[in-house]
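Input (structure):
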C-alpha cells in the first residue's frame, strides 16, 4: 500500500496530463448514485491519457437480462478495466471471477476500498507513516469502516471503534483485523463509548448513520446514533491536534455538525481530493 501511496504523492505533485493509458478505455458500471467516485475516475483516466464509458447497471442487466459471466466476458473484449459500484458484493465478485481485465470495487454494500485507500493515504501524507498513530471511528459499522479496518490493521495503526450496540462491525472482521493489527505492531479496540474511543485519537472519522439501502431504518438509526454525533463537544475529548475525517456525502446536523466539517480540524475535502490521486495510482498499477 505504501508503494501505491508514493505513486499517488508523485502524481499529486505533478498533475500534468500524461499518456500512460492512451488508447485504453475504463468502463464504469454503476447501480448507485455517485459524485466523487464517478468524477474522480473519469478525471483520473483523462489525466492519464485514457477515457471512460459509463453504464448504469440496469442497462447492463447483470444477473437479470444477462448472466454475469457473459457480461464479464463481453466487457473484457471492449475495455481495459471495469469499475463497479453496486448493491451486491456477490455480483461484483462474480464479474471479477469471469472477467479477463481488472475489476475495481467502486463501492458495494460490504466494502469501499478506494475510499479507504484515499483515507489512509491522507493520513500517511500528513504524518509520514503510521507507527504510533491512532485512528478513531465513531458511528455505523458500514462498508467504509469494513475497508478501513482491513487496510489500517495491515499498516500498523491503532484503531478505536465506537458504535451503538448492534451496529458495530461483524465479529469475524474484528477478529481478522485484530490479528492483522497485532502482527503489524498496531492494535484494535471496539466498544460503545464514543468519548473513550476518541481519547487518544490523532484522527477521528465518521460516516452517515443511514447508508444507501437502509432508508427504512432511518428513524430508528437516528435515535440510536444521536450520542455518537461528531460535534465540538466530542472532538474536545480527543488530542489537541486531532484531525476530523468524513468520506462524504455528509448529513450535516446528524453524524457531524457543520461547525466541525467546516472547522480548522477538518481534512474532509483533502480526503475527497485524494480519491483522484490514489485512483490514478491504482489505474497505473492495474492498466499500464
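Output (sequence):
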Amino acid at each position: 500500500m505504501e508503494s501505491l501511496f508514493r505513486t499517488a504523492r508523485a502524481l499529486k505533485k505533478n498533475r500534468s496530463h500524461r499518456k500512460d493509458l492512451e488508447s485504453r478505455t475504463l468502463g464504469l458500471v454503476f447501480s448507485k448514485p455517485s459524485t466523487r467516485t464517478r468524477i474522480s475516475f473519469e478525471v483520473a483516466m483523462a489525466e492519464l491519457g485514457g477515457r471512460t464509458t459509463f453504464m448504469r447497471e440496469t442497462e447492463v442487466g447483470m444477473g437479470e437480462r444477462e448472466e454475469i459471466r457473459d457480461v464479464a466476458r463481453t466487457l473484457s473484449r471492449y475495455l481495459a478495466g471495469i469499475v463497479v459500484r453496486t448493491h451486491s458484493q456477490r455480483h461484483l465478485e462474480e464479474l471479477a471471477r469471469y472477467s479477463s481485465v481488472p475489476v475495481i470495487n467502486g463501492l458495494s454494500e460490504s466494502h469501499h476500498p478506494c475510499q479507504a485507500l484515499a483515507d489512509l493515504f491522507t493520513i500517511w501524507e500528513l504524518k509520514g507513516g503510521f507507527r504510533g498513530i491512532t485512528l478513531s471511528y465513531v458511528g455505523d459499522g458500514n462498508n467504509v469502516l469494513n475497508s478501513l479496518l482491513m487496510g489500517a490493521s495491515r499498516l500498523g495503526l491503532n484503531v478505536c471503534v465506537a458504535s451503538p450496540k448492534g451496529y458495530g462491525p461483524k465479529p469475524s472482521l474484528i477478529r481478522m483485523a485484530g490479528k492483522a493489527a497485532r502482527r503489524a505492531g498496531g492494535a484494535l479496540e471496539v466498544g460503545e463509548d464514543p468519548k473513550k474511543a476518541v481519547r487518544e485519537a490523532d484522527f477521528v472519522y465518521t460516516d452517515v448513520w443511514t447508508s444507501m439501502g437502509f432508508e427504512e431504518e432511518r428513524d430508528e438509526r437516528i435515535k440510536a446514533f444521536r450520542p455518537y454525533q461528531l460535534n465540538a463537544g466530542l472532538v474536545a475529548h480527543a488530542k489537541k491536534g486531532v484531525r476530523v475525517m468524513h468520506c462524504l456525502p455528509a448529513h450535516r446536523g446528524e453524524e457531524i455538525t457543520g461547525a466541525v466539517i467546516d472547522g480548522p480540524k477538518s481534512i474532509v475535502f483533502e480526503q475527497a481530493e485524494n480519491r483522484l490521486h490514489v485512483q490514478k495510482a491504482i489505474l497505473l498499477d492495474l492498466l499500464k
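Notes: The chain has a mean pLDDT of 96. Strands lie at 25-30, 51-56, 81-85, 103-107, 134-138, 158-162, 187-191, 203-206, 243-246.
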